[in-house]
Design brief:
The complex is a heterodimer of chains A (about 500) and B (about 200). Chain A has about 500 residues and is mostly helical. Chain A is globular and about 90 Å long. With about 200 residues, chain B is mainly alpha-helical. Chain B has 7 helices and 2 strands, in the order αααααββαα. Chain B has a two-stranded antiparallel sheet with strand order 1-2. The longest helix of chain B is centred in the first third of the chain and has 31 residues. The chains are: A mainly alpha (about 500), B mainly alpha (about 200). Chains A and B meet through helix 1, helix 2, helix 5, helix 6 and helix 7 of A and helix 1 of B.
Chain lengths: ~500, ~200
């Protein structure tokens, strides 16, 4: 090698290095710019969602206690089980999951399109309208103006306000997508864009359609289950697809599997709803179609499961360090479990037992809590420090939050799964008095209250921690709130 | 190229949802919504409709279904909850109250199974007066404690220790309407669709 060529190659490496560094620099600057472009809006989405999480889970806890202590607070009409239970469902679904999910989707959209959010001012209108809608709707249920259909209890006006709020959330996402600075559209973005198109359509059809009798029941459950199809599940999956590879630092296992997962999900999932009416007075073909679609869901679920778990596989030791990863992996595992369980529950022989029982309630919480809510917690732990430019002050609080909610929801789901199964067996046994199915369930309902209490305590800790961070109180830290420092681990 | 791909994506996403709607809501709507009500099924009276509103307001649907399952699917038939429900039973029901939970028993035919007004009144006032171990909530706000009852008012026959000295517990208009509605729940007439099925079998 001549000295000349050596200099040349050195020069090239130097130039490459310099270029790489400036590229990295630009990249970091861009991220900061993106985060700044939606910091206050997304923080508002998160903060208000936490208000609904707290209120909604307190409603849930009161309802849970009332199931075994029916006379507790029995004299207050506004706190009666039949009002507080739908109030719980609606505040956590439309308040907590929706608002927190909307915040996370906005941030991911901006990061994945690699430009600061467009039309960011609309987000303030969105968060305002959305909160007004949920507050108005919840008040209506509590004070006796429910529409009387599960998942659709909010009066039409509240539904209209929320839909309007959604429009002001969807437009910035679409505008940002149009001006994107990337050629490749990442999986998370597919789910985000799909739900932005799906949700308003679904919500408006359900809130403003006119149907009668059993057709209305069909519409009710087409909607009820589809709220999970077009909104709750895409939020969770988009976040899992984003945070698992991000935190682990490895690409997603298979691009083709995610493609298969997405389109089979879109095709089959929104045909599932009528499995809530198996054995009911609807045409048999209609129920059968939903059962078939529910079983077909095994395809997207396995595609997503293989993709997520193979990405995480061999990196399980990282769960010891990263809160975001731990919450997200917990959620991704719950997604696999709840989906396969759901396909099973749609089979007539199993549904005969589980339908009309607490088993279904356990299933719902395995989905919306162990999957969605846990992933949302993980996402907020990741996103918030980037918005507030202040790290979570106390890693120990994160640890408490994780274990209380994780063990709480496991107790909750296991108790109701076993209790609900026995409740169904008792109910279907004509030799037993119906009251036996009520009385035999009570011990499991006490356990459910225990799990629920742990979850609410976890929420209180999380909200306290969130408030400290927003106020920039507590010690200033410069690293993520690792459960354990990676150095300590390697020293051992 | 990018434009076409985006178009295909959004079109596909829209199509999947609309397909699902057509299959699960649109087609059933065309098929079932024109059903005639059975001759024996009567429209709710104003009183019953008001009672139905109370049923909705207090969220009875979260623990009581209104749909009877057929023979061989659950024990609804053995428990004598009524013949299997058919779409025609629901033509006057808006909103529908099929329910998805049976913390308590099905109420599709409660008006046939339990015809006593005073049982229903006491049950609503305090379920544990008439059903031992019941976990149903009490609804005291549907009742009024008064010095004496008016001429048309329903006075509850309660154990002495449950009534304040020198007073009576009477049903409000809401409780009366709710009980009226519960008593109207009777789909014991022959199922219109069932008759057709039998003809075909013969």
């Amino acid at each position: 090698m001549t000295p000349e060529s050596k200099t040349k190659s050195n020069d090239a490496t130097e130039r490459a290095k310099a270029f790489h560094q400036s590229d990295l620099m630009d990249d970091t600057e861009l991220r900061v710019k993106i985060d700044e472009s939606l910091a206050s809006a997304v923080a508002l989405f998160f903060a208000t969602s936490l208000f609904w999480l707290l209120l909604g889970s307190i409603f849930g806890l009161i309802a849970s206690y009332k199931m075994h202590w029916p006379d507790w607070l029995g004299e207050y009409a506004v706190l009666t089980f039949g009002r507080i239970r739908p109030a719980h469902l609606n505040t956590v679904a439309y308040g907590w999951v929706s608002l927190a999910g909307a915040g996370a989707l906005l941030w991911m959209t901006s990061r994945l399109t690699r430009i600061p959010i467009k039309w960011g001012w609309m987000l303030f209108i969105s968060v305002l309208l959305w909160n007004i809608g949920v507050a108005y709707g919840t008040g209506a249920i509590i004070f006796g103006y429910s529409r009387g259909m599960e998942w659709l209890e909010f009066p039409r006006i509240a539904g209209f306000i929320i839909a309007l709020g959604f429009v002001f959330f969807a437009l910035p996402i679409l505008k940002t997508f149009i001006h994107r600075k990337v050629n490749h559209i990442y999986v998370s973005l597919w789910y985000i864009l799909a739900s932005v198109v799906w949700f308003p359509l679904l919500y408006l059809t359900a809130n403003f359609g006119h149907y009668q009798g059993v057709v209305e029941a069909g519409m009710n459950w087409w909607y009820g289950h589809n709220l999970l199809t077009v909104w709750v599940t895409p939020i969770g999956l988009a976040m899992a697809y984003y945070f698992l590879p991000k935190v682990i630092g490895r690409p997603i296992y298979s691009y083709y599997l995610s493609l298969l997962g997405f389109w089979s999900f879109a095709l089959f999932y929104n045909w599932n709803g009528i499995h809530h009416l198996i054995g009911g007075p609807l045409p048999t073909w209609l129920v059968t179609v939903s059962i078939v679609a529910s079983v077909m869901m095994v395809i997207p679920v396995l595609a997503v499961a293989v993709n997520h778990h193979m990405t995480t596989f061999k990196h399980f030791h990282m769960l010891k360090f990263s809160p975001t990863l731990r919450f997200t992996v917990f959620g991704a595992m719950a997604y696999t479990a709840v989906s396969l369980q759901g396909s099973g529950m749609a089979l007539r022989s199993i549904n005969e037992i589980t339908h009309f029982t607490h088993y279904t309630v356990g299933h719902a919480h395995l989905g919306v809590y162990a999957f969605s809510t846990m992933i949302l917690f993980g996402g907020i732990y990741y996103i918030m420090p980037r918005l507030s430019k202040w790290e979570w002050p106390y890693p120990s609080l994160v640890k408490w939050h994780f274990w209380l909610t994780a063990i709480g929801v496991i107790i909750y789901v296991v108790a109701l799964t076993i209790g609900g199964w026995y409740q169904g067996l008792d109910m279907n046994n004509p030799d037993k008095d119906f009251m036996e199915s009520v009385l035999n369930t009570i011990p499991y309902l006490y356990l459910r209250s225990l799990g629920g209490t742990m979850m609410v305590v976890g929420h209180l800790i999380f909200i306290y921690h969130f408030a400290l961070m927003v106020k920039r109180a507590g010690p200033r830290r410069f690293a993520p709130p690792w459960f354990k420092k990676p150095e300590e681990e390697s020293a051992v | 190229m990018m434009f076409i791909r985006s178009f295909v994506f959004f079109f596909g996403v829209l199509a999947t949802l609309l397909l699902g709607w057509a299959a699960l809501v649109g087609i059933p709507d065309i098929m079932i919504s024109e059903i005639d009500p059975p001759d024996e099924l009567e429209r709710y009276t104003a009183e019953e409709a008001f009672g139905r509103q109370i049923y909705i307001r207090e969220g009875c649907v979260y623990c009581h279904s209104q749909q009877v399952r057929p023979e061989g699917f659950g024990a609804d038939q053995e428990r004598l909850w009524g013949r299997p429900s058919v779409p025609a039973d629901y033509v006057f029901d808006r909103p529908h109250l099929l329910g998805t939970m049976r913390t308590g028993p099905d109420l599709m035919n409660i008006g046939v199974r339990q015809t006593s007004v005073s049982w229903h009144m006491e049950h609503l006032y305090d379920p544990r007066l008439v059903v031992e171990g019941s976990t149903m909530p009490p609804y005291p706000w549907l009742f009024e404690v008064k010095r004496s009852a008016g001429p048309d008012e329903f006075v509850l026959d309660l154990p002495e220790d449950r009534v304040p000295e020198g007073k009576v517990v009477v049903a409000t208009r809401e409780a009366e309407a709710l009980v009226e509605y519960l008593l109207s729940l009777d789909r014991s007439y022959d199922s219109p669709q069932r008759v057709v099925d039998n003809d075909e079998e013969e």
